[in-house]
């Protein structure tokens, strides 16, 4: 998943960012409301985690603007303002969930994953292709029953390929969905990560799973006959 965290407290922002990255999420961060609103309108996110008390533009204003613009991305409000009226106001403004500070990181992660699954109701918790399995809840990958350890970026990349299999995914879409920023200069890094992922997915006696489609991108599955 790709997550946007809008939080002005440096310590909390780094804490949340690190926790989400440990869960193999791609994470963008913003320290104020204007930056957060710009990022939310410029890139595709699966979930937004946002404080309410933000400089330049408060979280409620960001939330209302997102909903007015037609954005349906799930928003988890993370704030010290945990009173009933605050929660009701946030939910009425278009928030999908509300978590008061201080919070347990395990609960934050569980709520983020729940919101992400809500965005993808057609997908189960386990994605499969041939003998490859990716467990979204357990954050595990296996091929032929053999567990494969992936970095957060590799996990997100494989998840994207599985979601579209056997259709190809372009480098531009990979950068948008997997990378923290959307720069054309990062296409070389996509090649590097695909190469590393290919090697990790290789098993003796098994055909390669990821193929390159020249001028298009990458796809799961064998070359067509």
UniProtKB/TrEMBL annotation:
It comes from the Bacteria. Residues 124-222 bind DNA. It holds the Pfam family Response_reg. InterPro entries: CheY-like_superfamily (IPR011006), OmpR/PhoB-type_DNA-bd (IPR001867), Sig_transdc_resp-reg_receiver (IPR001789), WalR-like (IPR039420), WH-like_DNA-bd_sf (IPR036388). Keywords: DNA-binding, Phosphoprotein, Transcription, Transcription regulation, Two-component regulatory system. The modification 4-aspartylphosphate is found at residue 51. Residues 2-116 form the Response regulatory domain. Residues 124-222 form the OmpR/PhoB-type domain. This is Response regulator transcription factor. It comes from Dokdonella soli.
């Amino acid at each position: 998943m790709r997550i946007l965290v809008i939080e002005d407290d440096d310590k909390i922002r780094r804490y949340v960012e690190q926790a989400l990255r440990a869960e193999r999420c791609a994470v963008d961060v913003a320290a104020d409301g204007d930056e957060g609103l710009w990022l939310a309108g410029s890139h595709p996110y699966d979930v937004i985690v946002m404080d309410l008390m933000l400089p330049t533009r408060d979280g409620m204003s960001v939330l209302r603007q997102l909903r007015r613009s037609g954005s349906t991305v799930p928003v988890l409000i993370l704030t010290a303002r945990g009173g009933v009226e605050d929660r009701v106001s946030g939910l009425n403004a278009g928030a999908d969930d509300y978590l008061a500070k201080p919070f347990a990181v395990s609960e934050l992660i569980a709520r983020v994953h729940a919101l992400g699954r809500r965005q993808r109701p057609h997908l189960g918790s386990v994605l499969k292709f041939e003998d490859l399995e990716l467990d979204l809840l357990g954050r595990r990958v296996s091929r032929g029953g053999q567990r494969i350890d992936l970095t957060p970026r590799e996990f997100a990349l494989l998840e994207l390929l599985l979601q579209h299999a056997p259709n190809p995914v372009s480098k531009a879409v990979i950068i948008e969905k997997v990378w923290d920023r959307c720069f054309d200069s990062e296409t070389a890094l996509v090649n590097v990560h695909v190469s590393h992922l290919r090697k990790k997915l290789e098993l003796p006696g098994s055909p390669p799973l990821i193929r390159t489609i020249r001028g298009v991108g990458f796809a799961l599955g064998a070359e067509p006959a």
